[in-house]
Design a protein that fits this description.
The chain has 412 residues and is an alpha+beta fold. Among the domains are: 13-158 and 268-311, BirA Bifunctional Protein, domain 2 (2-Layer Sandwich); 321-411, Rossmann fold (3-Layer(aba) Sandwich). The protein has helices at 13-32, 46-53, 58-63, 81-90, 93-96, 135-151, 167-182, 190-198, 209-216, 227-242, 287-290, 305-311, 331-346, 360-369, 380-385, 406-411; strands at 36-37, 43-45, 66-69, 72-76, 100-109, 121-130, 158-163, 248-249, 263-268, 277-283, 298-304, 324-329, 351-353, 374-379, 387-392, 398-402. Bound molecules: histidyl-adenosine monophosphate.
Length: 412
């Protein structure tokens, strides 16, 4: 027997109803904010991610699924932002549309050690607003993230925000940290000892106790921000307050990807344990330029759908379609039944029958399992009289209906 690849998941029909509910809610809310869907390929040139996420990031160093094809190296996309900015430029949206609001829903791939809430194929619901540097956009994007959480019936989340500043500020913070942490380098965990030299910001969100203590003693603040970045961050915080969005400024929040600058944010949920981030995002004002485009800002975020579903109370999308289940007794009725099903479907009524030649009792059990709203029972005798028995499964009420009137009866 074959098994699924570790870190992947089969989404079975009992679960797919909740996935649909989340996706339906997301599309509705994105359109309220005037976002339009973009679908990019699942594979990209690997160098797109090396360049934008950063050579020293964990994703690029050890988590990319690579496909070697002669001279080319492709990667299964580990995230959506780089692909979307690539697509924005390749399709000249910078020239034709300028400022765009895009959303996406789909699978991402990271070769991680699987655990609860950490998969190798997982799904993002995310968005990117490209072409503006305005702090008001940061506010709207975070407000949109909160609105989505409400739409997903998720409560008790925490929104943490920080500003990394412009590339110069980020560089200053990096140097300051390097200098401070080199003194304690021996006490850091083995991973952070490496990070001090090649990706020091990542030391800030290491989960190791000793690293946390050392970092905590650094007493970080917003002091690395230049006046413009400070002002931008103030406007973001004031805008969020104005919309009554609760947030916490978290000076240790740096995010793992190189493309971020200025506002970054993360949304966590206490019920999730070690992998508690349900979503995250931030600004990437240099990314469009880095990929060969004009000097345009951008901001976005992505939620991990598997993690959303662990904390969501959203109702399953099933049972709402009012399924009609036909039970036939006898060969003539079985034959006529196919035509009845065809007519009902043409009238937009969802219906099904049992294809296992079960007894009446067994077929009725099948109707129950399928959560049918109505059951139709047709025997050869009824067929001769041109009637059918209609049973309402929630009230138990049963009546005979003429076959000609069946569609009308079910539609009202
Ligand atoms: P990220 O923080 O790497 O950001 O991923 C966003 C969310 O995806 C995480 O908060 C988490 O919920 C989920 N996630 C990440 N890795 C896994 C995994 N292995 N298994 C299950 N869920 C996972 C980004 O990817 C950025 N592109 C977000 C962004 C959009 N920033 C700006 N625009």
């Amino acid at each position: 027997m074959f098994k699924r690849v570790p870190g992947t998941k089969d989404i079975l029909p009992d679960e797919s109803g909740s996935w649909q509910s989340i996706e339906i809610a997301a599309r509705k809310i994105f359109s309220l904010y005037n976002y339009r869907e973009i679908r990019t390929p699942l594979i990209e040139e690997a160098s797109l991610f090396n360049r934008t996420l950063g050579e020293t990031t964990e994703i690029v160093q050890k988590q990319m699924f690579l496909i070697h094809n002669q001279e080319d190296v492709y990667a299964l996309r580990p995230e959506g932002t780089a692909s979307i900015v690539r697509s924005y430029l390749e399709n000249n949206l910078d020239k034709t549309a300028g400022f765009v609001k895009l959303y996406y829903i789909g699978p991402m791939f990271r070769l991680e050690r699987p655990q609860k809430g950490r998969l190798r194929q997982f799904h993002h619901i995310g968005c990117e607003a490209i072409g503006s540097q305005e702090p008001e956009l940061d506010v709207e994007v975070i407000a949109l993230a909160e609105e989505l959480l409400k739409g997903f019936s998720i409560a008790d989340y925490r929104i943490k925000i920080n500003s990394l500043g412009c590339p110069k500020d980020k560089q200053a913070l990096t140097l300051k940290l390097k200098e401070a942490l080199q003194k304690n380098a021996k006490e850091l965990c083995p991973d952070c000892r490496v990070r001090v030299n090649n990706n020091v910001l990542r030391v800030l969100d290491c989960k190791n106790e000793t690293c946390r203590k050392i970092v905590g003693d650094l007493k970080l603040s917003e002091s690395h921000l230049c006046p413009e970045c400070k002002e931008h961050f103030e406007k973001v915080k004031n805008g969020l307050k104005n919309l009554n969005i609760s947030f916490q400024v978290e000076p240790y929040l740096v995010r793992g990807l190189d493309y971020y600058n200025r506002t970054v944010f993360e949304i966590s949920h206490p019920e999730l344990g070690a992998q508690d981030a349900i979503g995250a995002g931030g600004r990437y004002n240099n990314l469009v330029k880095e990929l060969g485009g004009p000097d345009l800002g951008g901001i976005g975020f992505a939620f991990g759908v598997e993690r959303l579903l662990l904390v969501s109370k959203i109702a399953d999308n099933k049972d709402k379609n009012g399924l009609v289940y036909l039970v036939t007794l006898g060969d003539a009725a079985k034959n006529a039944g196919l035509k009845i099903l065809n007519d009902l479907r043409s009238a937009g009524i969802p219906c099904d029958t049992d294809f296992l030649d079960k007894s009446l009792k067994g077929a009725l059990r099948g109707a129950n399992d399928a959560a049918a709203k109505y059951v139709l029972i047709l025997g050869d005798d009824e067929l001769k009289k041109n009637i059918i028995t209609l049973k309402n499964m929630s009230t138990g009420e049963q009546k005979e209906v003429s076959l000609q009137n069946l569609t009308g009866e079910l539609k009202c």
